[in-house]
Specification:
about 20% strand, 18 strands, six-stranded mixed beta sheet, GMP Synthetase, Chain A, domain 3, about 25% helix, alpha/beta, about 425 residues, magnesium, GTP1_OBG_dom, Spo0b-associated Gtp-binding Protein, Chain: A, Rossmann fold, 3 domains, Obg family GTPase CgtA
């Protein structure tokens, strides 16, 4: 099941390119000054809806998605090129969640062709031309490129179909889909032949079509996850009309109807308010034909309209489909809206946090001091330790931000080790 409507993937935005230390050296132009260019921005990670996809099977082997790194800056004030963006294409109805916290909804993609920025690429490091000032006209320092954000995300698919076929296992749902469309789902005389939802397009007239989903059978307790109930029930949420297929050979078809309706209501009460059709199936079997009248009277006494059919012989299936299409025309249209938690803005906000916001902690066992803070960790990671002026700049920032004063007040001694992010 996880190969069809669930997947877990790793996404990483591209790192920024490094800045360059260079000086202008041309004939007849003495003291040309710094000319090191900035590094290019890393590539972004986008999520895009591809209407040609109808499952998450494409992520069965493709798990890692990485954007390109920005090019390094060059001499003659040449900035590096941007890194290549990475576009992760998903089927309509895909929900994106943070893998660390499954309750955090990041994106809900339903509109065909809609693209959403998930992770922005790291910014490029500045070259020495950006550090030129009145006091330092020949700076010999440059920054490293910023590392791109990375995370694991869970993808969950909720099928987007006009009509959903529901019922208990072996009620004839797949047979009905194969009779009214060109879909060819697996059909056999045992329960749970259908383990994955099947989609079919039904054409009524020249311009009248609708998408019908054959959903796997429901068992008692499906609302609580029994028998992969959650895996099946969530695909009914975006169906505008439901066709409830009743197994006519069942000893008590009324109880079968009540059981499925109860599972829908317990899972999501809104499912019971959707327009629905009750189709009494297997009329070609004598025992089902004998139960038809009693079932029809029992349902009509409740105010429920029912129709009889035989999916195997296609008797009555056209009437069921036409009635479903009629309900579809009057059913309220739920305009698909793509929900976004704006992860990119949160990442950018974290990157713009000031260096002065930090936290100091010490490990008493190893006497290792840790400095936490998005601003100071980003600054440390982008510092290019190959240049002496970069080290001087780093020491000035620690002094001006108050980190040195905080460490001294906490009792740090000369020779103690300090870790800022991945740098020690």
């Amino acid at each position: 099941m996880r190969c069809f409507d669930r997947a877990k993937i790793y996404v990483k935005a591209g790192d920024g390119g490094n800045g360059e230390v260079a000086f202008r050296r041309e004939k007849y132009i003495p003291h040309g000054g710094p000319s090191g260019g900035n590094g290019g921005r890393g590539g972004n990670i986008y999520i895009e809806v591809d209407p040609s996809l109808n499952s998450l099977l494409c992520f069965r082997k493709s798990v890692h998605f990485r954007a390109g790194r920005g090019s390094h800056g060059l001499g003659k004030s040449q900035d590096g090129a941007f890194g290549d963006d990475c576009v992760v294409k998903v089927p309509p109805g895909t929900v994106v969640r943070d893998a660390k916290n499954s309750e955090t909804l990041l994106l809900e993609m339903t509109k065909a062709g809609h693209r959403e920025l998930l992770l922005p690429g790291g910014r490029g490091g500045r070259g020495n031309a950006a550090f030129k000032s009145a006091k330092n006209k020949t700076p010999q320092l440059a920054e490293r490129g910023e590392q791109g954000a990375e995370m694991w995300v869970d993808l969950e698919l909720k099928l987007v179909a006009d009509v959903g076929i529901i019922g208990v296992p072996n009620a004839g749902k797949s047979t009905l889909l194969s009779a009214i469309s060109a879909a060819r789902p697996a059909i056999a005389a045992y329960p749970f032949t259908t383990l994955l939802p099947n989609l079919g397009v039904v054409s009524l007239d020249f311009d009248a079509t609708m998408v019908i989903a054959d959903l796997p059978g429901l068992l008692e307790g499906a609302h609580a996850g029994y028998g992969l109930g959650h895996e099946f029930l969530r695909h009914t949420e975006r169906c505008r009309v439901l066709i409830h297929v009743i197994d006519g050979t069942s000893p008590q078809p009324e109880f079968e109807y009540d059981a499925v309706r109860l599972e829908l209501e317990l899972f999501d009460p809104r499912l019971c308010s959707k327009p629905s059709i009750v189709a009494f199936n297997k009329m070609d079997v004598p025992e089902a034909a004998e139960r038809w009248e009693s079932f029809r009277k029992a349902m009509e006494s409740r105010g429920v309209e029912v129709r009889s059919m035989s999916a195997a012989t296609m008797e009555g299936t056209l009437q069921v489909v036409r009635h479903a299409y009629k309900l579809l025309q009057t059913a309220p249209v739920e305009e698909p809206v793509s929900i976004s938690n704006d992860v990119a803005s949160m990442v950018k906000k974290e990157r713009s946090s000031p260096i002065g916001e930090f936290k100091v902690d010490v490990d008493p066992e190893s006497d290792l001091w840790h400095i936490y803070g998005a601003g100071v960790e980003r600054f440390t990671q982008m510092t290019n330790w190959e240049y002496f002026e970069s080290l001087q700049r780093f020491e000035r920032v620690l002094e001006c931000s108050g980190i040195n004063a905080e460490l001294k007040s906490r009792g740090i001694h000369e020779g103690d080790k300090v870790a800022i992010g991945d740098v020690r």
